[in-house]
Input
Amino acid sequence: MEAAALTPVDWMVVIHHELFLFAGLFFLLGTLDELAIDILYAVGRLRGQIRTPRIARDCVEGRALGGRAAVIVPAWQEHDVIGATLRHMLRAWPQSELRIYVGCYANDPTTIAAATRAARGHERVRIVVHSAIGPTTKADCMNSLYRAIQQDERREGIDYAMVVIHDAEDMVDPAALPLFDAGLASAELLQIPVLPMPQAGSRWVAGHYMDEFAEAHGKAMVVRDWLGTGFPSAGVGCAIARGRLAKLDAQNGGTGPFDAGSLTEDYELGLKVAQDGGRTAFLRVRGEEGHLVATRAFFPHRLDTAVRQKSRWVCGIALQGWDRLGWTGSPLDGWMRLRDRRGPLAALVLFVAYLLLLLTGALMLAESLGAARSPGLTPVTEMLLLANAASLLWRALFRAGFTAMEHGWAEGGRSILRLPVSNIIAIMAARRAVVQYLASLRGSMVQWDKTEHHGHPSVGHQPVGQQATA
Output
């Protein structure tokens, strides 16, 4: 049939076939990539090299530290949550060796006031007001906190052993600080899992974070740690040796250890430490009662705020990361960076897959009206269809299992139903991320695109460990 004789329905059949091949092949490549991680995880578990040890919380929580610790909490327009965060942190971590540095901006008086009220009567909290007009970037705010730490060290003649990074809404685990302290003997950067909390009013949007973090911090990061490749810091629940921060500061010409021009300084931090030869460790530990030692937090509960947050991740990791970090390291490091940067391509493939669903429905309707005839499946397309159907089932069951492990089987079941929500957010975030990246190439200033926080995880939830309720 000549091209000129093709009807609109014929063109739909041709486009449907080509899109099917495109999506099917890339889904198959993604399947093989994920299957490799699954196999490595299974091998590590069977060999006993990947495991989640148990600790007696009573013997760990509140234990004195071997050195001084500084916690830095950057805060821009966080008046709704910063008070609850500080009060919880002071209860959960009563160690006298700890000092909390909260970074605020002079043009954000409500956050300063909320932090000041929560810190009243506590010598272990210092409010640091940034000299710049906010918002700058989160990394820039953390650099101002680092300079405050340096000033205190010089003025008081003290030395910090580690710096712990947290966000303004985090609910810390009482056992985390002593574990960080002990872990510094063998690593310069330590990361514990992040555990998004369920939100009754947002089972689908906020809930999809539970699914993604359960699998990422239960499997992918664990495998990366086992393989010895660099893994990205989560930006919360992360401890770094004071000496390593000084080295990063020197590499940046004394401007601070965190790159103020990066949208995802947390992601880059872990990779830079590993790239410079520093030892990193992902600490996955449970208490004797079975609760994971993790940072608990609320994530965005609305579609628009979830898209905004994830677009920053995609832009900073997949697009800026390519420019800023390149592909240095071992072949294993290259594989992991490729996985980190696949977000825009994965979103494109997902978009094509949903477009295929619409085209399939339209062609079925046309066939029922006698306007078209189904071209049928070729051996190649049939193989792709079966392979991807099996892959979808495997991935859904795997995700449900990891979600159920942390949040119960009810949430594990919901995780399967939340897969389309996760995919739609990924597609929308990738589109926005590409726009952001192109704007940055034209010289647009990078600013702190902060996450909106709906409530605080310490409200209405039973804190983990005894110290949290002291």
The chain has a mean pLDDT of 89. The domain at 54-302+453-465 is CATH 3.90.550.10 (Spore Coat Polysaccharide Biosynthesis Protein SpsA; Chain A).
